[in-house]
Specification:
eight-stranded mixed β-sheet, single chain, globular, D-Amino Acid Oxidase, Chain A, domain 2, alpha/beta, 531 residues, 37% helix, 14 helices
Length: 531
């Protein structure tokens, strides 16, 4: 049979990639647009372990509120006890119980989860099939021809049984780092400033951190489970993660700045050798078995476009990826899937081409803003990680902005309100320039600590609650005015700047300072200038 004679299957939505981003979008569309012809295409026949196991609040809110997966997540995966940071000596020989620590002493106000990606994606495939999504696994998508305007997208799927032709009004690229559309359309934006790489693997038999002595160490956090946290061991230029998964498996990995850490990955042995150069990490792994190990030489990249009014979109890592330090991958999936499903719904419900284009452009502009704001948290920041004092400053600024600017807005669906989204975009220059100013301030603090020999002076024996800076946490998720958000941002900026100047100037006690007005923090400004 010739190509011209083959039957063409017609779809409303084709999702290429059955990983986390694509499978979640399929579920979202089946709930919002029941009865539509939606198909998901995945080249794998079976799922295996994959990174991206730690979810934070926006992603978790999306899974619970938008997708109705609350009971499923508690039954099949582990609840998460926030992010937890440990600080070592320059010789990497401090015992875990002696390390300074930033973390929680109670479960967070909003649930989050540690997910086994293999189980998660396999279960989602079953849920989607039962919801009426057509699942095509074990075949490769080829010959993609993106349509324009009313012209449908066309492609073929090849597997052991032959070739099948498809047409779809919408085509969603959820192919991960294969980045099908980005490569074809030359949308790739290489990241040249942040040279981050990663090595990771999965271990059986990792020591349970909650069984370690002495009792006073456990009592310090009121016996809340450290094991359920995403644990970070922090060093100048790199960090090590521990993420617990259900049924005894633990994900362990290293993320590093190539300019500061020369981590040569040569397989399981070299990875394990590197980990065991750290006394506390080696103690946790002393009875563990490494089952698999993988690596990426470079993590971060961007894209010129996320959404098109020609009815295609990039979601998950098919679009862009920054850095895993704050576990942002699930958050970006939530945003991109919300925007994509809203665009598809508007189109299928009869929106005009002009209205669809305006909405796609708006969502695309906001995704670029969010991605650039995320990159500001990582570019040039790897030198800060190894100092308890400096990293606490960074954490308080970053978590404060996350809860105040991004999480609260997401929980109120402001990202789907065109007017509110435009107001947020109106603050783009102010947000990005302020973050850049704080980066330069932290660089000066870093240099001063190094010069005085104080970089790791408080890396032992300290504990601070990770959310102690969030006096406004009771407001998160409730309706808030722009004035309230601005006032909170103003407080965060002045508090962090004041403590940064104390470190820079070598004060043992906080100095009295006059709060700066909000407009003082934006534009290109030296935040270290004296009051």
């Amino acid at each position: 049979m010739s190509i011209a004679d083959r039957e063409v299957a017609k779809l409303d939505v084709a999702i290429v990639g059955g990983g986390m981003a694509g499978s979640l979008l399929a579920r979202q569309l089946s709930r919002r647009l029941p009865g539509r012809r939606i198909a998901l295409f995945e080249k794998r026949s079976q799922y295996s372990h994959c990174v991206g196991e730690s979810l934070v609040e926006i992603a978790s809110n999306y899974l619970i509120r938008r997708l109705g997966l609350s009971s499923y997540l508690y039954e099949r995966h582990l609840p998460k006890n926030g992010l937890r940071f440990f600080f070592d000596s320059a010789n990497r020989d401090t015992a875990l119980q002696q390390m300074s620590e930033i973390g929680s002493d109670s479960l967070p106000f909003h649930p989050a989860f540690q997910i086994d990606r293999s189980r998660f994606e396999s279960d989602l495939t079953d849920l989607n099939a039962r919801a009426g999504i057509a699942i095509h696994s074990g075949g490769r998508v080829e010959g993609l021809e993106l349509g324009q305007g009313e012209t449908p997208h066309r492609f073929q799927v090849k597997n052991d049984h032959g070739t099948r032709d498809f047409e779809s009004r919408w085509l969603i690229d959820a192919s991960g780092r294969s980045r099908m559309i980005a490569r074809q359309q030359q949308l790739d934006v290489p990241e040249t400033e942040l040279q981050n790489g990663a090595v990771w693997g999965w271990f059986e038999g990792v020591t349970d951190v909650d069984d370690l002595d002495p009792p006073a160490w456990r009592e310090r956090i009121r016996h809340t489970p450290r094991r359920l946290s995403t644990m970070h061991f922090l060093y100048r230029g790199y960090w090590i993660w521990f993420i617990p998964l259900k049924e005894g498996m633990t994900s362990v990995g290293v993320v590093y700045d190539q300019e500061l850490c020369d981590l040569q990955y040569r397989g399981k042995e070299s990875f394990l050798e590197f980990l065991c150069q750290h006394a506390a990490v080696a103690e946790l792994l002393k009875n563990a078995k490494l089952t698999d190990a993988r690596a990426y030489s470079h993590l971060a990249y961007g894209t010129k476009r996320f959404f098109s009014s020609d009815r295609w979109a990039l979601v998950g890592e098919a679009g862009a990826f920054p850095d895993p330090f704050y576990s942002p991958g699930g958050d970006f999936i939530a945003l991109a899937n919300d925007f994509t499903s809203d665009l598809i719904a508007r189109d299928l419900e009869g929106a005009s081409d002009v209205a669809l284009r305006k909405r796609a452009d708006l969502y695309d502009e906001f995704m670029h803003f969010r991605f650039e704001a995320a990159m500001q948290l990582y570019r040039g920041h790897y030198p800060f990680f190894g100092s308890f004092e400096l990293c606490k400053l960074k954490w308080d600024l970053d978590i404060g902005c996350y809860y105040n600017l991004w999480l609260s807005a997401y929980m109120n669906d402001q990202h789907l309100d065109g007017r509110k989204l435009k107001r947020q975009l109106g603050q783009r220059f102010h947000v990005l320039s302020a973050l850049a100013n704080f980066t330069r301030l932290f660089e000066k603090v870093d240099a001063a600590l190094i010069a005085r020999g104080d970089y790791g002076r408080r890396n032992s024996g300290e504990f601070t609650r990770g959310l102690d800076c969030l006096g406004f946490i009771h407001e998160i998720g409730l309706p808030r005015t722009d004035e309230q958000v601005l006032a909170t941002t103003h407080e965060i900026f002045n508090e962090v700047r004041g403590r940064a100047l104390d470190l820079l100037e070598g004060h043992d006690r906080p100095a009295a300072r006059t709060p700066k007005p909000m407009e003082w923090f934006v534009g290109e400004r030296d935040l270290s200038l004296p009051d």
